[in-house]
Amino acid sequence: METLETMKTIKTMDKTMDNTENTAFCETCRNDVNYNITEKEMTDTLKGTTCSYTGKEARCMECGSLVFVPGIHDGNLKNLYDAYRRENDIVPLEIIRAIPTKYCIGKRPLSLLLGWGEQTFSRYCDGDIPSKQYSDILYRIYHEPAFYASLLEAGRENLRSLTTYEKSRKAVCRLSDPDNRKDSGIHTVIRYLLGQCGDITPLALQKALYYIQGFYYAFYQTYLFPDNCEAWVHGPVYRDIYYKYRDYRFDPITPADFFEPSALTVSEKAVIDSVIRYLCCYSGKILEQFTHNETPWLDARGDLPVSAPSGRIISRDSIGEYFTAVKARYNMVAPSDIRTYARDMFQYI
User: In this structure, which of 60, 132, 300, 314 has its CB flanked by the most CB atoms within 10 Å?
Assistant: First the structure.
């Protein structure tokens, strides 16, 4: 059996992102020049908040001076805004943009429904940062169809078309109907986890989901849920799940009152039960150390400083490939064999 040291692959990333010949005007050379693009850690202040983020800079290949490239400037600005959102718990841009589709309502009608200016929601979709008050409303709208339904009824007179109201109401009904709702696999897994563990914090929950995703793929060559995992400072994180349970902080999450066992297959339960038994017995901080020594998180973080915030995606392929390799190295035959990997990881850290 190979050692865990050989399993840990840390890539030293070359910060030079693109050495192809690009052209921009250099103020020093007073001419159009070719430039190199490099990646670096940047710090800027936005609305009184100092934010660190990963950005890019372009330098003249003749004299080494910085040159202005619109695309790079826009990308850095987006990364700065994303960092500000994370620092201040502002609803992510992707959630804002998903709301109209989820509830079958246009941007302007949604603004009118909420009693905001007609262009307010459109500006948020374009990248403007909402106030904390508006952010919390948008977050609740996305995650709580019942809350949106109450707003739809209360503000229906603000809408200029009955058709707009009817279309959105039907969307809410579909989301609320158990026979029609496409319940994300990750939430099914979470309800089962909470019921079985009885004492699991948000940090430990995040790591459990990551291990379930990885080991299920290793055994069955398919993923349990489509949700993206991100390489945060404290290990792999599913962003939507973080926002849903963040108020528990270091306290155990309250389990659901009822879980229908038939919602999971025998193979799904086998993997989840093994993760609960052999990995969830450790604290969230111990599991965090496990993930900090595994390829998916390390590769996604690259050369970021240890404490640098990041929304970099840990690709599902990276997770699947790593745990498939773990299964092969440990000659795992059944999910219960996860115990050997968990034991070795604990001894390693």
Answer: 314
| pLDDT tens profile 84-134 | 888 888 888 888 999 999 899 999 999 999 999 999 999 999 989 999 999
Q: What is the DSSP letter of 54?
A: E
Calculated CA dihedral for residues 212, 181, 123, 132, nearest 10 degrees:
-60
Contact 284/340 with Cβ under 8 angstroms? no
Provide the phi-psi class of 198: left if phi over 0, else alpha when psi is between -120 and 50, else beta: left
In 10 A of CB 284, how many CB atoms?
19
CA gap 236, 284 in Å, rounded? 11
Q: Which two tokens stand for residue 349?
A: 């850290």
Is pTM beyond 0.85 here?
no
Task: Give CA–CA dist 157/177, Å, rounded.
Answer: 25
- Distance, in Å, from the CA atom of 58 to the CA atom of 201, rounded to the nearest integer, reads 43
Amino acid found at 219: F
> Which residue in 105, 95, 175 sits closest to 139, CA to CA?
95
Amino acid identity of 163? T
Look up residue 33 and give its DSSP letter. E
Best CA proximity match to 59, nearest among 80, 39, 79: 39
